UniProtKB/TrEMBL annotation:
Cofactor: pyridoxal 5'-phosphate
Matching Pfam families: Aminotran_4
Family membership: Belongs to the class-IV pyridoxal-phosphate-dependent aminotransferase family.
Described function: Acts on leucine, isoleucine and valine.
Entry protein name: Branched-chain-amino-acid aminotransferase
EC number: 2.6.1.42
CDD domains: BCAT_beta_family (cd01557)
Broadest EC class assigned to this enzyme: transferase
Domain of life: Bacteria
Entry's Gene Ontology molecular function annotations: branched-chain-amino-acid transaminase activity
Reaction(s) catalysed (UniProt annotation): L-isoleucine + 2-oxoglutarate = (S)-3-methyl-2-oxopentanoate + L-glutamate; L-leucine + 2-oxoglutarate = 4-methyl-2-oxopentanoate + L-glutamate; L-valine + 2-oxoglutarate = 3-methyl-2-oxobutanoate + L-glutamate
Pathway info: Amino-acid biosynthesis; L-leucine biosynthesis; L-leucine from 3-methyl-2-oxobutanoate: step 4/4; Amino-acid biosynthesis; L-isoleucine biosynthesis; L-isoleucine from 2-oxobutanoate: step 4/4; Amino-acid biosynthesis; L-valine biosynthesis; L-valine from pyruvate: step 4/4
InterPro entries: Aminotrans_IV, Aminotrans_IV_CS, Aminotransferase-like, B_amino_transII, BCAT-like_C, BCAT-like_N, BCAT_family
Length: 355
């Protein structure tokens, strides 16, 4: 399944690209190329093609517009300290994409097709990696069939695009204010919370709007059963650090199984830090903060890596966590080091892309 490569004959001029790379706002600048692969139920996967980034020609009745059969991944490529191009645990993204695909009744993407598509794009757009940043890669798949019936589409498109990335939050790693949403939820048992699909995000935007009104950058969602169990943010997982140094995070189930989350758990376990995956209620958090038990709260995901939470605001009050803490800073440095090859991570985490 080698990728057919047709380089863009009219790439963005070097001077303009350099200017765009000075301080790219996350998700606003895109590279010269994209990779696409078409799947049909009758014929399976066609050869993936890398070509100039361009619009799709899609009929208004396309299934994806109406019933949202769609999913995506998020990962980053780095230019390492040794000059090599690196991906972080791409096998985990491929595996998660296929778990999402199963849930969304979409075709499995062979790991080789996934890997070769991503690597071909990184190679073609390697000049788009900012000096101090990374190339955010967005593999995604959507139903591409003209029909208004409710059934899994017989034709899908897998695509990878790339966007140069600096710091995700304008404030960098400074403390975030997070809105604790007690009105809407993002995921129910048996629902699609575990799948990385656009619908989960669509459902989170109402709360996100409220969060902005409240001066918060992000939303923390609670469980759909009304018990107030802490789940995760709209697009990031959350960790708590107690004064005694123990660390915990909500257990998997309805939350999105973040690769950053899993990597943090593995790093902490390897160094012997007591860490657990538990069910933790908002009421317990309030009590723990009041008792001075919570030393740090931080959130994590590929886009932002790790960001400290300084304040949790909710209807009727706020919990002050305080300045960004040392564990978040240390983990951020370790992960960033592994991404660029400056720190040796566990076997297989850092994958070099040949140029
Ligand atoms: C992507 C995502 C995360 C973070 O996953 P990473 O693999 O660490 O980037 C967390 N929560 C949600 C809802 C997500 O979509």
């Amino acid at each position: 399944m080698a990728v057919k490569v047709t380089l863009n004959p009219e790439p963005v001029a070097e001077a303009e690209r350099e200017k765009l790379l000075e301080a790219p706002v996350f998700g606003t600048v895109f590279t010269d190329h994209m990779v696409t692969a078409v799947w049909t139920r009758a014929g399976g996967w066609e050869q993936p093609e890398l070509g100039p980034r361009r619009p799709f020609a899609i009929q208004p009745e396309n299934a994806v517009f109406h019933y949202g059969q769609q999913l995506f991944e998020g990962m980053k490529a780095y230019r390492g300290v040794d000059g090599a191009l690196r991906l972080f645990r791409p096998d985990q993204n491929a595996a998660r994409m296929n778990r999402s695909a199963l849930r969304m009744a979409m075709p499995q993407v062979p790991e080789e097709l996934f890997r070769e598509s991503v690597e071909a794009l990184v190679r073609a757009d390697k000049n788009w990696i900012p000096g101090q940043g990374s190339l955010y890669l967005r593999p995604f798949m959507f139903a591409d069939e003209s029909f208004l019936g409710v059934r899994p589409a017989d034709r899908c498109i897998f695509c990878v695009i790339a966007a140069p990335a600096g710091d995700y939050f304008k404030s960098g790693a400074a403390g975030l204010s997070v809105w604790v949403e007690q009105e809407t939820t993002r995921a129910a048992p048996g629902g699609t919370g575990e799948a990385k699909c656009g619908g989960n995000y669509a459902g989170s935007l109402h709360a996100q709007t409220r969060a902005y009104e409240e001066g918060c950058a992000q939303v923390l969602f609670l469980s759909a059963d009304g018990s107030g169990q802490i789940e995760e943010l709209g697009g990031m997982n959350i960790f708590f650090v107690k004064k005694d140094g123990s660390v915990f995070t909500p257990a998997l189930g309805t939350i999105l199984p973040g690769i950053t989350r899993a990597s943090i758990l593995a790093l902490l376990r390897a160094e012997g830090t007591p860490v657990s995956e538990i069910s933790y209620h908002f009421d317990e958090l309030k009590a723990d903060v009041a008792a001075g038990e919570i030393a740090e709260v931080f959130v994590c995901g590929t886009a932002a890596i790790i960001a400290s939470v300084s304040r949790l605001k909710f209807d009727g009050g706020a919990l002050e966590i305080g300045e960004p803490g040392p564990l978040a800073a240390r983990l951020r440095a370790t992960l960033s080091g592994i991404y660029t090859g400056a720190v040796e991570g566990p076997q297989g985490w850092s994958v070099t892309v040949s140029e």
